[in-house]
């Protein structure tokens, strides 16, 4: 059983979403990735969502650019949490996708991350899964602690460099 499903509207989204896959692998979260369109393959999209839900999937990340209907269609077809990732594409460079995903009608929410923010989408998904997984929660706390150590080491190196210049 895959815990997280990632559905992309286009194969061109994959190069950005690879960052999300790295995060999910790092936290040892099972996932599946498909390409399906809200407009061009609507029945296929809804069937995949229903199958994923029936198989015990826990959360879906839906990725789309331009008018970005995919996250909303997915959210309307399931009770699972949906995280939308707007992609930088078209004349408006992702602003249209961002607005389309974040402005869902009342009753059908889609959590939305920044334009192209695949890494944050995966991290949010992992954090949601920690609600019922203590071991995963410990891994996330360790990840955060490592970020702190990395930033402190970078600051220490900067301070040393600045003191040598002065």
TrEMBL record:
The keyword Protein biosynthesis does not apply. Substrate binds at residues 10, 13, 40. It catalyses: 5-carboxyamino-1-(5-phospho-D-ribosyl)imidazole + H(+) = 5-amino-1-(5-phospho-D-ribosyl)imidazole-4-carboxylate. Keywords: Isomerase, Purine biosynthesis. One of its GO terms (biological process) is 'de novo' IMP biosynthetic process. Residues 2-151 form the PurE domain. The gene is purE. Pathway: Purine metabolism; IMP biosynthesis via de novo pathway; 5-amino-1-(5-phospho-D-ribosyl)imidazole-4-carboxylate from 5-amino-1-(5-phospho-D-ribosyl)imidazole (N5-CAIR route): step 2/2. Belongs to the AIR carboxylase family. Class I subfamily. Its EC number is 5.4.99.18. The keyword NADP does not apply. Catalyzes the conversion of N5-carboxyaminoimidazole ribonucleotide (N5-CAIR) to 4-carboxy-5-aminoimidazole ribonucleotide (CAIR). HAMAP family: PurE_classI. NCBIfam families: purE (TIGR01162). InterPro entries: PurE_ClassI (IPR033747), PurE_dom (IPR000031), PurE_prokaryotes (IPR024694). It comes from the Bacteria. This is N5-carboxyaminoimidazole ribonucleotide mutase. GO terms for molecular function: 5-(carboxyamino)imidazole ribonucleotide mutase activity.
């Amino acid at each position: 059983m895959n815990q997280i499903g990632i559905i992309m509207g286009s194969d061109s989204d994959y190069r950005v979403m690879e960052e999300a896959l790295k995060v999910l692998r790092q936290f040892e979260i099972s996932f599946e990735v498909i390409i399906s369109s809200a407009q061009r393959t609507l029945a296929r999209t809804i069937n995949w969502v229903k199958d994923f839900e029936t198989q015990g999937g826990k959360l879906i990340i839906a990725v789309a650019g331009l008018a970005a209907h995919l996250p909303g269609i997915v959210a309307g077809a399931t009770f699972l949490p949906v995280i939308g990732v707007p992609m930088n594409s078209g004349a408006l460079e992702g602003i249209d996708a961002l607005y389309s995903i974040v402005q869902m009608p009342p009753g059908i929410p889609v959590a939305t991350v920044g334009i192209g923010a695949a890494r944050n989408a995966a991290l949010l998904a992992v954090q949601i899964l920690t609600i019922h997984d203590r071991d995963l929660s410990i891994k996330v706390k360790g990840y955060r602690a490592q970020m702190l150590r990395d930033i402190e080491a970078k600051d220490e190196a900067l301070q040393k460099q600045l003191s040598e210049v002065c």
